[in-house]
Amino acid sequence: MSSPDGVRRLRIVAPAKVNLGLRITGVRADGTHELDSVFAPLDFGDEVAIEVAPAAEASVELALEAETPLAVDVPAGRSNLAARAAERFLERAGLACAVRIQLTKRIPAAAGLGGGSSDAGAVVRALAECFPEALAPPAVAKLALGLGADVPFFLEPRPALVGGIGERIEPLSPLPALALLLVNPGIALATADVYRAYDALAAGRSDPASATIGARLESLLRGHSVGPRRRGPWDPAFARALGDLLTNDLEAAAVRLCPPVARLRARLRAAGARVVGLSGSGPTLFGVF
Q1: What is the CATH number of domain 8-171?
Q2: Res 240: pLDDT
């Protein structure tokens, strides 16, 4: 919304995401890993308030408020990915204005929930809304991918099959409402470290020729009556099939670096979770109830 003094203010929710299954399908020449995963946004996340004002030259300021102890290690100021996203947008678009970002963090840092990427995606979305003619959609997508593999998904966060290194995004049919419990051991786990551990374990990569996780998920949902109004226990066959689908190729590496992940998985199952999955590179687990 624009004010009489030309200052525009927007407030955007930056949702967390979980991975409904994650397969490593290959490694590119530069060492980056290709994946096959379903990204699903949650109704839980950070909040990004942005103020854009006329100025003689471009500038970006970011203030951070952490609402959970698990987010206290999130970098503040210009080292934050959200601030870098704003700087990159202004640079690519050739804009001279002052951007102030107030970031309220609820998503834990280095948790596999896409918090930093979601914040960056929210900033890019906000600036694209403020300056709709500044960058064409392909340029916005390229900018997002340059910030991080998960950022393009958060330009339009909705259930999607994500492939390649994050650049291939195929929207999926709406998913049924699911009750999830997120559990984090309180230990930050850097994505790069998990991928290095995965390579060291010489884990077998998934077959890229097999059906994608997205196709299998949609087939599974069509074949079973599961929806937001369903009551009572799930069909056991559905739970088994969903559990198989939620296999994450990075889990063994995450457990090696963070052994509590294995114990938390067992506790979630003991608490009654129908299925349990690891989100991203971990260490956050989610139980489906």
Answers
A1: 3.30.230.10
A2: 85
* Distance in angstroms (rounded) separating the CA atoms of residues 119 and 50: 11
Fold of 180-288: Alpha-Beta Plaits (3.30.70)
In 3D space, the residue among 32, 285, 31 whose CA is nearest the CA of residue 166 turns out to be 32
What's the CA gap between 122 and 135, in Å, rounded?
16
Query: Has residue 119 got a pLDDT over 80?
Result: yes
Query: Considering 36, 46, 150, 249, which one is annotated as catalytic?
Result: 150
What are the strands, taking DSSP E only, across the chain?
8-27, 33-54, 59-66, 97-105, 160-164, 168-171, 180-183, 275-278, 285-288
Please say if 105 is a catalytic residue. no
The residues with which 36 forms a beta bridge, in sequence order, are 23, 163
Dihedral of the alpha carbons of 105, 21, 222, 172, in degrees to the nearest 10? 50
State the Cα–Cα distance between residues 51 and 1, nearest whole angstrom: 10
Sheet with strand 275-278: strands edge to edge: 180-183, 285-288, 275-278
- pLDDT for position 229: 45
Domain ranges of the chain: 8-171, 180-288
Catalytic residue from among 17, 36, 46, 119: 17
As a whole number, mean pLDDT of residues 19-40 equals 93
Residue 267: left if φ>0, alpha if ψ -120 to 50, beta else—which one?
alpha
Cα 145 to the chain's mean position, in Å?
13
Q: Is it true that 8-171 and 180-288 share their CATH fold?
A: no
Question: Please, what sign has the CA dihedral across residues 103, 152, 40, 286?
Answer: negative
